[in-house]
Design goal:
The chain is an alpha/beta fold and 397 residues long. It folds into 2 domains: 170 residues, Rossmann fold, CATH 3.40.50.1970; 207 residues, Dehydroquinate synthase-like - alpha domain (Dehydroquinate synthase-like, alpha domain), CATH 1.20.1090.10. The chain is 49% helix and 10% strand. It contains 16 helices and 9 strands. A 6-stranded parallel β-sheet has the order 1-9-6-4-2-3, sandwiched between helices. 56% of the residues are buried. The mean pLDDT is 96. The structure holds fe (ii) ion. The site of fe (ii) ion has 7 residues, from helix 6 and helix 10.
């Protein structure tokens, strides 16, 4: 007998607050941490972002070694380096501090702390045998939402394919979200990571795997991004509310897609990021409105709701198939206001690779949530429009 049920996993503890990084040591101590490996990148370290974390750890007599070798789009090699650092430090826990790359590296390295072999052997879902050590994640962007999810993305250094590794045991023992940490990110990073948040929320909201609780989080996150992302990008030390709202939106969208899954934006973005090193948030930001147009015929009512959440005036007497275009227009306007390019042609991605990208995207796990069924020609079509800058809404609205 098949039982119709759905799983939704969330972390054990989520601590949220401006300045909350100063509480890291207290909570690490409560979790029984004596000696941590902190996984991060050199920019975060140089920007002084680690200071409140390190001060707090030392105040509570928690020892800490730092591995700062994380690169954007971390490969299996980086993960193995981090795992070696964990062994050499004789650590009993892992702290991931940074953007999605640092937290994903921390998660993947935690697998190798208690499990043998190559990290890519654990790709897919639920392949981790032994429970990894205590895990604490602190995001410095808003963001990937990785701190509240059970997925990590590791790039295969042989094939350049971004592989997904998911396991309940990778969820944080503590996700510690301090919006203040995100203010150190450059303006352009705040813009692209903020659009990643919107992408998570929109893809989770229209996903065929959406659940009541994930949809509630997703639509609220969409509203917060619409109201706050422009101001958060312009932040110059004055608008704490906008930064805090974006950190909330990132957490909510992260939790939402951890239950509802993602869609064609991420399925394509993983391939473009893997082959051409276009930053994840940037490629999502560009692709999102094109994929929304592709999905509109399948989920017109939800697109109208997204339009409303993004602040559009919606006429409920007009067919949703038409009114839904306003969600795409609002997304495009937001992206343009924060200086996101209109097309993939303005990135390192190459138009000649469309066929290869489309073919690879069909095997990406994210695609399983997409509301409209896709085949190779559909993906080629989305990519072609995203290179050419062609939008239907501009001729309809
Ligand atoms: Fe993402």
């Amino acid at each position: 007998m098949t039982v119709d049920s759905q799983m939704w996993n969330v972390p054990n503890r989520v601590l949220f607050g401006w300045g909350a990084a100063a509480e890291t040591g207290r909570y690490a101590d409560t979790l029984g941490v004596d000696r941590a490996l902190l996984v991060t990148d050199k920019n975060i370290r140089a920007a002084g972002v680690l200071e409140p974390v390190l001060d707090s750890l030392s105040k509570h007599d928690v020892e800490c070694e730092i591995f700062d070798g994380v690169d954007p789009d971390p490969t299996d090699r980086i993960v193995h380096e981090a795992a070696r650092a964990y062994d050499e430090a004789n650590a009993d826990s892992i702290l991931g501090v940074g953007g999605g790359s640092s937290i994903d590296t921390a998660k993947a390295a935690s697998i190798l702390a208690t499990n043998d072999g190559d990290v890519l052997n654990y790709k897919g879902f639920g392949q981790v045998d032994s429970e990894p050590p205590t895990r604490i994640y602190l995001p410095t962007t808003a963001g990937t939402g990785s701190e509240v999810g059970h997925w990590t993305i590791v790039k295969d250094s042989e094939t350049n394919i971004k592989e997904e590794i998911g396991d309940v045991s990778l969820l944080a023992d503590l996700a510690l979200i301090d919006p203040k940490l995100t203010t150190s990110a450059p303006t352009s990073v705040r813009a692209t990571t903020g659009m990643d948040v919107l992408t998570h929320a929109v893809e989770a909201y229209v996903s065929i795997k959406a659940q009541s609780q994930t949809s509630a989080l997703a639509i609220d996150a969409i509203e917060k991004v619409g109201e706050n992302l422009r101001r958060a990008v312009e932040y110059r030390g004055d608008d704490r509310d906008a930064i805090t709202a974006m950190a909330h939106a990132s957490t909510q969208a992260g939790m939402a897609f951890n239950g509802a899954g993602l869609g064609a934006v991420h399925a394509l973005a993983h391939q473009i990021g893997g082959l051409f090193d276009v930053p994840h948030g940037l490629v999502n930001a560009i692709l999102l409105p094109y994929v929304m147009e592709y999905n509109l015929p399948q989920v017109p009512d939800k697109m109208v709701q997204i339009a409303e959440a993004l602040g559009e005036d919606v006429d409920h007497s007009t067919p949703p198939r038409r009114e839904g275009y306003k969600a795409i227009r609002a997304t495009r306007e937001l992206a343009a206001d924060i200086r996101i390019p209109r097309t993939l042609a303005e990135t390192q991605a190459e138009i000649d690779a469309i066929d290869r990208l489309a073919e690879r995207s069909l095997n990406d796990g994210s695609l399983t949530g997409n509301p409209r069924k896709t085949d190779l020609r559909d993906m080629q079509g989305i990519l072609t429009r995203a290179f050419d800058g062609e939008f239907e809404y501009e001729t309809v609205l």
